[in-house]
Amino acid sequence: MIRYCLSALLVCVFSLSSFSQKSSHILKLDIGSGLHTLIDKNFSSQIYTGISTSGGLGYFYQTNVSKYKTLFYADKGFYNEKKLFPNIWSIDIDFYQMYLRNQFVMHISSFSDVNYFLGASTNNKFYLNTITKFKNSNNSIAYSIISDLSISNLIEYNFSFFSAPLTFVWAVDISLLTHMLRPLYSGIISNKNKIIGQSKFSFINESIQTRSEIELFYNLENGNKIGLSYFWNYTSYDSNKPIKYDPVKYAQHSLLISIYFSFI
């Protein structure tokens, strides 16, 4: 009996050792630019388009059956000025954005060189807009803090193109539960000391948070990679409860140069 137990223990230790050998730690760096579209009827019925510079830092831990990653992105940009009444009334918006994402997915199935992963993610987004509404007037600020729990889908495909080892990744997140924090559900704060507003939980019928990311990488030696990343981020929320506020729609398209550094 003892011999069987020792044999089983050795098998478990060997399995865990083999499993750990297939794990890796990865550091990711991103830099690029983004195109932004904003509709916030709390301060204007106009559609605003803008550009930004973007940067990101991420940590990945992955094995042959699972992937975990933490990503942090930051954007700084501006929206095009809208001259509603020339020389009298215009809206000029500068914006900052920070984004923290945690994702865990498990390998579900494989077909040839295509692998499918399924899991969950948490996403925390902070938007800050500095708004000048009248010429030579004091700035107002508008902010949103949005956190959501999402279902994550990931497809990974490894292939060769003229003997170059490439990896194609397509990831899609769809929110199930969202928490929003906006002062009184209004886009503008005239008093900068008023930074605490009302919060709200919402489901997909009131708030839509989606994110789609496409990556194409050239695989270097020792697990390092370099390539391009494109991601599309869409946010929409609208509700009449508990306080009436106008709908907000926001979309971001970003193209980034990404570098992966693999280490043990």
TrEMBL record:
The keyword Signal applies. Keywords: Signal. This is Outer membrane protein beta-barrel domain-containing protein. It comes from the Bacteria. Residues 1-20 form the signal peptide.
